[in-house]
Amino acid sequence: MVEPGVVYLDALTLSALRSLLRQKALTEVILLEPPRRHHTAWRWLLKKRGVRIRVAEFFSGHLKAGDGESIRRVSRKTATQIAFAASRNIVQSDHTLRQINESYGRETIRLYIAKQLLPYIEYWTDRALAAQALCSPEQPHVWMKRPDRFDEAFLFNALPNIHFHLFSAGRVKGLRLLSLWLLDIARRFKLAFGFKRQGFASASWVSPSNKPSILMLQEDDIRADRTLRGQPHWMDAQKPRPPFDTYVLALFPILSIADDAVRLFETGLRILSPSTFRPALKEWRGHKALKRVRRDRHIAMRAVFLKRAFAAQYFLLRIAALLGLAEWMGALALYLNTKVFLVSETYQPFADAMQVVSADLGVTTIAYQYSNMGILSPTMMTTADQFLAFSDLYRAIYRADGIEPREFIPIGYPYDGVAELVRERAMKHRERLMRSGARFVVCYFDESVQNDRWGLVSQEDHRRELHALANLVLEDPSVGLVLKSQFIRNSPSRLYATDEIIKAAKSTGRYLELAEGQHRNDIYPTEAALSADLCISHKLGATAALEAALAGVRTVLLNPYGIKTIWDDLYAQVDIEYETAEQLLAAVSRYREGHDDQQTLGDWTPILPFFDPYRDGQWSCRLRTVLEMAIRRTTKGPSNISLDVIS
After folding, report:
1. Which residues in 331-345 are b (16+ Cβ under 10 Å) and which e?
2. Residue 507 CB contacts under 8 Å (≥ 6 apart), including other chains
3. pTM over 0.85
4. How confident is the model over 450-494, as pLDDT tens digits?
5. CA–CA separation, 224 vs 239, rounded Å?
């Protein structure tokens, strides 16, 4: 192979420098990461050898692959493909990992490994695809550190049009394994001793009763006010107490417990501090199921010292940590007489840990869908006993490579009953805008905003769309604007506090930001949507868009990143997708002027049944039915409840 004159380098490191200096024909190095200050001498040395150094200027969300899709999205799809193949290879290649995976069944261990691999693999796919986009139509020569957690052959097979040159990163692997082990110990110590919830966390705790219980992880702020996003949103303090207790394990200090949460105590809700793990382990340590995971954890730890392949050593340590967590979760389930483990955010290690031990404990694991994502990702997958999805449409993105839930149950969109709860407040928002002259209200939902070059949505992109809408408010006195960000930190008033265009739009009285909460914006998209005539969301994610459409509000999708989903054929049946804000606003203008060709703008009606076959506001009732059926099965009681019966 002829030595390349120009190469793309992931980062200028000492290992990279040694590799580059051996390259005789080298003329230029294009850095995919800006060099650090202490790299000045290394750059000087390369220049003395006649090698030009320059930093590639780009934002990955702006770079497109050959099919027009952002390379950041293509990277996620490619990394997903590699993660499944590599996890299978890792498990099959190591006797201990294969035995543990087979022992617990359902490919739960392999799925957990794929989840750990995905963000790691994206380092290589991000940079390789960026180089390819920058070099197009030529095939780039990309120099990167060699991966040590998966076979590099999977990278070569997934990206055959890229010439890879991989070099050793020169790290001491023994120290990395030791640090991984110490990190696991530190995390578990912090769980048991590092923090305690104040206030309700201790006030709500009572000794476990003999009643069967449901165990959950805290995934949202805990509150009784059902007009705001919260947990558990399906419990209603106004309804009779269910025949089970519900425990929420508060693992993350960033999530709050609202003052009104005390109202939920009458429904059997209890909030647990992680310190509860200690008495649970003390009481149930001798249970045979916990002995089993503890034995397998020791087997995995011992095997680390017998292996030579770093990937096997690394994932044996990760699986040992997972089994340690499974012992803790199992002890807690026994302590609380748990019959059902209910989870939404299946990417949490606690969810996979519970899945590992649940069968031996007779606990039914139930996961429910909360995101309208349009691509396959191991991060969101689960091997739960039951998976409650929006509709049958989503089977395709929750099963892959022999990994799937045991039972797939479509029960509709989780927040389908919100509209009637927030309608009055939404009308007040609208009246406020109309008092300032608004006659047509636009609602804008943002997605996550990133600052580094490896993101998908930049602050510049976000600000540009906000400016287009703010200028519309300034130019047309009949237009009002409602903004609802996904996260509090991304509220325009925080991100762009000194922006003159946004400040001018605010001064009209026809600009309104809706925000509530500390981390996630707990205002429901439904509330913002019902105050508007038209909602603007993004094709990326599109959960807010789906919620708005289900609430009966015209909703369109911006897609400047060329996002492709597995249901694009459905989207193509209706007039909802636009590439730029300018194109969209032109369509909005024609719609308002009454042009016949634009009167179906944002109308999801023909395709909504594919996303939610119910649309009746009864999701919470269906979930309650599923939970009661599961508890009756585990307690060997009658199980004659049907999902068709809504009580």
Report:
1. bbbbbbbbbbbbbbb
2. none
3. yes
4. 888 999 999 999 999 999 999 999 999 999 999 999 999 899 999
5. 12
